């Protein structure tokens, strides 16, 4: 079945690292994504990882993928107040390419 | 990156009227576009997959006669909410994938906030 789960809230202090976790159930996922959504706005792609990789780093963002446990994480280094938003993980299935989203994790960064 | 433009960004309509939302890929051709609905503080729910030149594929529980989708060209898909009711008030977001790049990123529009009064 198709199911993506995330914790709903995360609060960190400015300058700390944030780690947002996600689990998924479908082992046929090809790509896994992290999106950021600010209030009232659409989704901004942050990064994505192909399912045969286990890590991807892009500036302050590090994505770790444990395919055996179907666990995906997003680490934001040196978190800033501008990083406060809702973060969605998503998986894409098969050739049709539809995205299945998690519930979103609301990240709150306190000064 | 590629740009997807959604219009309008906000719309208020009266109960019983119809509203059309447009989703355009501005600098690439999109054979497939997706329409999502998002309730406050909730995740995105896929409503339907829109394929250029063919009928849309609706997810279970989504009324195809209420949410009409037309994907007439490789750069434009429209979602029409027919006979809108207050419970249709929501945030609607489209996304598009490039031609022949089904397994890479999907680009999202900025969303449309629909309020039915």
What is the compact description of this entry?
The complex is a heterodimer of chains A (about 110) and B (about 120). Chain A is mainly beta and about 110 residues long.
Counting DSSP E segments of at least 2 residues, the number of strands of chain A comes to 11
Rounded mean pLDDT of chain B is: 89
Provide the gyration radius of chain B in Å: 13 Å
Order of helices and strands of chain B: EEEEEEEEEEE
CA radius of gyration of chain A is 13 Å
Decide which structural class fits the backbone of chain B: mainly beta
The N- to C-terminal Cα distance of chain B equals 37 Å
Stretches of chain A where pLDDT is under 50 for at least 5 consecutive residues are: none
Oligomer: heterodimer
Terminal CA distance of chain A: 41 Å
Helix tally of chain A? 0
Structural class of chain A: mainly beta
Q: Largest interface, per-chain counts?
A: A-B, 23 and 23 residues
- Principal-axes geometry of chain B comes out as globular
What fraction strand of chain B?
A: over 45%
> Secondary-structure element sequence of chain A?
EEEEEEEEEEE
The number of distinct helices of chain B, counting runs of at least 4 residues, comes to 0
Largest sheet of chain A: 6 strands, mixed
Q: Describe the sheet with the most strands of chain B.
A: 7 strands, mixed
Shape of chain A: globular
Structure description:
- The complex is a heterodimer of chains A (about 110) and B (about 120).
- Chain A has no helices and 11 strands.
- With about 110 residues, chain A is an all-beta fold.
- In chain A, about 0% of the residues lie in helices and about 60% in strands.
- Chain B is mainly β and about 120 residues long.
- Chain B has strands spanning about 5, 10-15, 20-25, 30-40, 45-50, 55-60, 65-75, 75-80, 90-95, 105-110, 110-115.
- In chain B, the strands form 2 sheets. In chain B, strands 2, 4, 5, 6, 9, 10 and 11 form a 7-stranded mixed sheet that branches. Chain B has a 4-stranded antiparallel sheet with strand order 1-3-8-7, with no helix packed on it.
- Chain B is globular, with a radius of gyration of 13 Å.
- The termini of chain B are far apart.
- The mean pLDDT of chain B is about 90.
């Amino acid at each position: 079945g198709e199911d993506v789960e995330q914790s709903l809230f995360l609060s960190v202090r400015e300058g700390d690292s944030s780690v947002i976790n996600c689990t998924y159930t479908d082992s046929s996922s090809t790509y896994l994504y992290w999106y950021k959504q600010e209030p009232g706005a659409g989704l901004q792609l942050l990064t994505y990882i192909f399912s045969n990789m286990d890590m991807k780093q892009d500036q302050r963002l590090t994505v770790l993928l444990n395919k055996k446990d179907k666990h995906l994480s997003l680490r934001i280094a040196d978190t800033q107040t501008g990083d406060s938003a809702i973060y969605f993980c998503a998986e894409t299935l098969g050739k049709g390419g539809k995205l299945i989203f998690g519930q979103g994790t609301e990240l709150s960064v306190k000064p | 990156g590629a740009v997807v433009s959604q219009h309008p960004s906000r719309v208020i309509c009266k109960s019983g009227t119809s509203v059309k939302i447009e989703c355009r890929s501005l600098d690439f051709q999109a054979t497939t576009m997706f329409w999502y609905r998002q309730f406050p503080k909730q995740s995105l729910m896929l409503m339907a997959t829109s394929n250029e030149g063919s009928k849309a594929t609706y997810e279970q529980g989504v009324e195809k006669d209420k949410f009409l989708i037309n994907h007439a060209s490789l750069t434009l898909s429209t979602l029409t909410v027919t006979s809108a009711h207050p419970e249709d008030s929501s945030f609607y977001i489209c996304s598009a994938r490039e031609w022949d790049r089904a397994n890479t990123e999907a680009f999202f529009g900025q969303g449309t906030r629909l309020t039915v009064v």
